[in-house]
Amino acid sequence: MTQPRGHLTALEDEAIFVLREVVATRARPVLLFSAGKDSIILLHLALKAFRPSRLPLAIMHVDTGHNFPEVLAFRDARLAEIGEPLVVASVQQSIDDGRAIEETGPRASRNRLQSVTLLDAIARHKYDAAFGGARRDEDRARAKERIISLRDDLGGWDPKNQRPELWEIYNTHVRGGEHLRVFPLSNWTELDVWEYVRRERLEVPSIYFTHSREVFSRDGLLYAASPAVPRLPSETPFTAQVRFRTVGDMTCTGAIRSSAATLDDVLRETATATVTERGATRADDKIGEAAMEDRKREGYF
Amino acid sequence: MSTEVAPEPHLRALRCATAGSVDDGKSTLLGRLLLDAKAIMTDQLEHLDEASRRRGFARTDLALLTDGLRAEREQGITIDVAWRYFATPARRFVLADAPGHVQYTRNMVTAASRADVAIVLVDVRHGLVEQTRRHLFVTRLLGVNSIAVVVNKMDQVGYAYDVFARVREDISTYLAALPLPGPAPSVAFFPVSALVGDNVVDRSAATPWYDGPTLLSHLEGLDVEERGADAPARFAVQWVIRPQNETHPDYRGYAGRVLSGVLRRGDAIKAWPSGVASTISRLETFDGDVESVGHGAAITVHLADDLDVGRGDLLSVDGQPPPTLAREIEADLAWVHASQAKVGVPYLLKHGTREVRAVLAAIVHVYDVATGARAAPGAGGLAMNGIARVELRTAEAIPVDTFAERRQTGSFLLIDPASGATLAAGMVR
Ligand SMILES: Nc1nc2c(ncn2[C@@H]2O[C@H](COP(=O)(O)OP(=O)(O)O)[C@@H](O)[C@H]2O)c(=O)[nH]1
Fold first, then answer.
1. Chain A, window 144-183: residues with a beta carbon less than 8 angstroms from a chain B beta carbon
2. Do B73 and A272 lie within an 8 Å CB cutoff?
3. Which of A69, B79, B110, B358 would bridge with A164, disulfide CB 3.0–4.6 Å?
């Protein structure tokens, strides 16, 4: 008797199938790698889909210039380990080139500028499919996203005009200038992600686990005290035991107080969490009811 | 902390498609399921409270939880399929929430195409209305094996048994009369008030005449594992792995997915559409070789012989029913695009991982989606949200099964070669 496929294995099968469908039918696929837990899994699944050959896709990081140093070190080590090259698209470069305008003031963030850098890089490298690690459980706008989502020649997303996704037959056609955003982890939840990290014994950056850090409090979230994040006079830094649930740009990624030191600790914390991943940690989604939808329409991940 | 870390769930998530007419209470039901199953996080609840207050609602509107896009929230309707995830100690769930408007029947097709179970809502005061007929028809057309009918707003009829029983009778009669192939689905009925919470997650004291399970415990217990092991094996080749490096000079692996049945090392196979024969020499995964592998698996197959096998090919195992090689295909089409279907025009047909050119040879009849009745194609032909029996002619033969036998190899898409748009969902009859 062959056992029925378990929950994580079924998610893995689906993601590998999607990766192969897109790579087989698109000329220039790219995998967006931020060294966060979702993209770590994505890269791992790409290895499962295509080894023992070299990966038939590019790997790109959109670097805001305000990333956690631990995460960048992890990124480089991981790529060296698998022997694949990395393309870096730099938000600083977009600012220097006058393509993007830096926000100013204490709440300035480069999060939104990433869309410009990403779309420029997609156009420059003529990528026609970009894999991202976004999950539908993250946000209300993401909940409507297809696994394979068409972007127009301006990189925009029109949620009212999406291709229906039927069975598991994927339509990967694009016209000149259009590209696909592909989300093989669409059906994963945060808990699935951590369970998979444990099952596959994947390394993740140290900041996902508890550590002592200089932080300051803003709008009920804790932010890393760093020159990249300007503080108001009233925002005094202090030391706390924290960890991060997501590892985005420092200016908009908050930490949570946690003593979770191991994967099992993190899993327990995730299983009993009472606040969503983005709600706990992302200032960018607190701005309005439709913050994510607006960024997606502009070409965000 | 002494909480145990639970092991990976044994079963894959249960995929539910939800359907109902506008105002039947679908969003409220989903909110209720998520709330009572404690799958709503506090920041989402706060958001809900605030959004409800801003709209001047007296009470927290659970529907706002599932209406994701701004246009939807502003107009107070649901436009597109939304995917929700929640878990109970017994099971994980994926809810595909398909909006109820007439013009969005295609969303119902989308949601139903991936569903293990369809949750169909009716307002007990209105009973079996046209929109419900459509949902039930689409559910049956798409071969969903299990239907849960939620008879909602029971509080509005004083929880009267006879009103519930009449709705149940009407729906059963309608379903039984639908002229569609395939096994009859199993259907369960639930007397519910989504607003109050009766029989959704918690049993209701208001329906002493009902001794069945609550909706949630029914879903938790639903057995939908396909009896994969006895089904004929089908494997779709997606990509040929050829590293051509020093460590793997002669490596040639067929990366793809087991669409149905089981593959075993040593199986004699045929590759379609060419029909060439070989033997499975290895079943390789990233984590090592395996002796056999079941339905759903993404793996790499190695064959004993050097053959011309490539992307788009379908493997079957000797001694089991092979697929039918066909150039003329009779099918039901659900048209999901704003353009009109045109007889004689070339389309692209995607079946499994293969794309071939195909023309629509004839529209045999259209279905009245609200009654299931067949009618001659009128002047309107086949357009958005229409469903019809058609004949297609492909440029090359493709290996198909009927949809009733196997939905993985009995289904296909029609794609517009010029725009790349998905035009129709097809089911081989
Ligand atoms: N009395 C009563 N009202 C309900 C029930 N379920 C939903 N409603 C109300 O019916 C209206 C439409 O519900 P909604 O969930 O938005 O419907 P949808 O359009 O199907 O998503 C709202 O005013 C709900 O409060 C119920 O079980 N009983």
1. 144, 150, 159-160, 162-169, 171, 173-175, 178
2. no
3. B110
Cβ(B325)–Cβ(B368) below 8 Å? no
Contact B51, B102 (CB under 8 A): no
Helix, strand, coil % over all residues of chain B, rounded to 5: 20, 35, 45
**Amino acid (one-letter) located at A25:** T
CA distances from B43 to A135, B50, B87, B88, B407 (A): 18, 11, 18, 20, 40
Q: Give the residue carrying structure tokens 């006079």.
A: A233
**Is B82 in Cβ contact with A51 (below 8 Å)?**
no
C-alpha B29/C-alpha B24 separation (Å) is 9
DSSP letter (8 states) at residue B128:
S
CA distance B243 to A123: 29
On whether the CB atoms of residues B109 and B336 are closer than 8 A, the answer is yes
- What does residue A88 show for φ and ψ, rounded to 5 degrees? -110, 125
Residue owning the nearest CA to atom 26 of ligand 1: B153
Identity of the amino acid at A236:
T
In whole angstroms, what is the distance from residue B234 CA to residue A221 CA? 51
Residue B58 neighbours by CB under 8 Å, 6+ apart: none
Query: CA B141, CA B160: separation in Å to the nearest integer?
Result: 32
**pLDDT in single tens digits along all 429 residues of chain B:** 334 455 556 678 899 999 888 788 888 898 888 887 766 555 565 666 666 666 665 555 666 565 544 455 555 555 567 788 888 888 889 888 877 665 567 788 888 999 999 999 999 999 999 888 988 999 999 999 999 999 999 999 999 999 999 999 999 999 999 988 888 899 999 999 999 999 999 999 999 999 999 999 999 999 876 655 679 999 999 999 999 888 998 999 999 999 999 999 999 999 999 999 999 999 999 999 999 999 999 999 999 999 999 999 999 999 999 999 999 999 999 999 989 999 999 999 999 999 999 999 999 999 988 888 888 887 778 988 889 999 999 999 999 999 999 999 999 999 999 999 999 999 999
Cβ pair A195:B8 closer than 8 A: yes
Encoded tokens for B264: 């075993």
DSSP H stretches of helix in B118-188: 130-141, 161-177
- Interval between CA B185 and ligand 1 midpoint (Å): 27
Angle A107-A109-A114 from CA coordinates, rounded to 5°: 165
CA-based nearest distance A233→chain B, Å: 28
How far is B357 from B60, CA to CA, in rounded Å?
52
Minimal Cα distance from A19: which residue of B?
A: B238
| Residue from B158, B136, B161 nearest B148 by CA | B136
Query: What DSSP state is assigned to residue A177?
Result: T
Q: Torsion-angle region of residue B57: left (phi > 0), alpha (psi -120 to 50) or beta?
A: beta
**CB < 8 Å to B83, chain A:** 136, 143-144, 186-187
Contacts for A197 with CB less than 8 Å, ≥ 6 apart: A37, A40, A41, A204, A263
Cross-chain Cβ contact B11/A163 below 8 Å = no
Q: ipTM of the assembly?
A: 0.90
CA–chain centroid gap for B340, Å, is 24
**How far does residue B309's CA lie from ligand 1's centre (Å)?**
55
**CA neighbor of A119 nearest in space, from A177, A43, A46, A65:** A177
Q: List all residues 6 or more positions away from B412 whose beta carbon is below 8 Å from its beta carbon.
A: A169, B331, B349, B350, B351, B400, B425, B426, B428
* Ligand 1 atom closest to Cα of residue B30: 15
- Residue of the nearest CA to atom 24 in ligand 1? B25
- d(CA A245, CA A254) in angstroms, rounded, equals 8
The answer to whether the CB atoms of B109 and A166 lie below 8 A apart is: yes
